[in-house]
Automatic annotation (TrEMBL):
Top-level taxon of origin: Bacteria
Name this protein carries in UniProt: Conjugal transfer protein trbG
CDD domains the UniProt entry points to: VirB9_CagX_TrbG (cd06911)
Keyword vocabulary terms for this entry: Signal
Gene: trbG_2
Family (UniProt): Belongs to the TrbG/VirB9 family.
InterPro entries: Conjugal_tfr_TrbG/VirB9/CagX, TrbG_Ti, VirB9/CagX/TrbG_C, VirB9/CagX/TrbG_C_sf
Length: 215
């Protein structure tokens, strides 16, 4: 380290690190402690000042974590105002903490039944109508639409799904069949629709549910 007379060189240690012993070869270099922060973020600094020019000596600092070896030189004008270190174990710990947070966030935002990540799903649907098998949840992943049905549907015949298309000013919407499959109590539709109906039965006994995607 290069220091200058009438200037201070600041050596910053790792947060929480404590000095055990400090030995300087030439007493014409003074080393004083300074502290910044508090609690777990408290950091110890070594303030190094030479009393003369042309000095060349060594400094050994032992801490509760490691040993530092410095070579100290003094000049009239040139000096290093601030010195700090990087610690590979600290950097790895930070990356590990980031990975853990990402894993926890993904776990907290994943549907346990399907493993689908909520961050990629859209749930903005309105479900209107009354039926024993009224969907409990509707969402899409940008490619497929998933309609989750209640357990009661397993005791009855599954309703038919029809998608409504053609919403022009003078054209009545028409219902069309789309590709879908039943997976347990879920309808998996191979498209993202704006409006669809689930229909079961006929005549007065017909049950109908309308599903509308909201903007």
């Amino acid at each position: 380290m290069v220091c200058a007379v009438l200037q201070v060189c600041d050596v910053s240690l790792q947060p929480g690190e404590q000095v055990n012993n400090l030995n300087v070869g030439d007493p014409r270099f003074t080393v004083e402690p300074a502290i910044t922060g508090n609690g777990a973020s408290q950091r110890l600094h070594l303030l190094i000042k030479p009393l003369d020019v042309g000095l060349d000596t060594s400094l050994v600092v032992t801490t509760d974590r490691r040993t530092y070896h410095f070579r100290l030189r003094s000049t009239r004008n040139e000096f290093m105002p601030y010195v700090s270190f990087t610690w590979p174990d600290e950097a790895e710990a930070k990356w590990a903490a980031i990975r853990l947070r990402q894993q926890q966030e993904k776990h907290d935002n994943t549907l346990p039944e399907t493993g689908e990540y909520l961050g990629r799903l859209h749930f903005n649907y309105r479900v209107v109508g009354r039926a024993r098998w009224k969907p409990v949840r509707v969402y899409n992943d940008g490619v497929k639409t998933i309609i989750e049905m209640p357990g009661a549907m397993q005791q009855t015949e599954a309703p038919s799904l029809l998608v409504m298309k053609g919403r022009g000013l003078f054209a009545k919407p028409e219902t069309v069949m789309v590709n879908y499959r039943l997976q347990g109590s879920r309808f998996i539709v191979d498209s993202v629709f704006d409006k669809a109906v689930l229909v079961a039965g006929a005549g007065r006994g017909q049950e109908k549910i309308t599903i509308q995607r909201c903007a």
